[in-house]
Amino acid sequence: MSVTVRIPTVLQKLSDGQHELHVPGTTVAEVFAAVGSEHQALYARITTGEGAVRPFLNVFVNGDDIRFASDLQTSVRDGDEVSIIPSIAGG
Questions:
Q1: Domain ranges for the chain
Q2: What is the pTM of this model?
Q3: Of 10, 20, 24, 26, which has fewest CB within 10 angstroms of its CB?
Q4: Which numeric CATH code is attached to 3-86?
Q5: Whole-angstrom Cα distance, residue 82 to residue 24?
């Protein structure tokens, strides 16, 4: 089983320049743990010490915001796409 994790440009230096990673997992938490096993600095940048998604990052599974589903326990299936999107502020 493989899920595609799309990495934003600003974080690609932590994924060895890769714009997407293919990892196993059945929940977003498992997917992030798999990312962390290969790219520890990236995992540390997208999660807090408690394992939650860092503030100012949004995570989507197939275009749906995980905050409106089951957050990190949101289920994923083979072929799904997890996108990490930094929040943009300004005014």
A1: 3-86
A2: 0.93
A3: 10
A4: 3.10.20.30
A5: 12
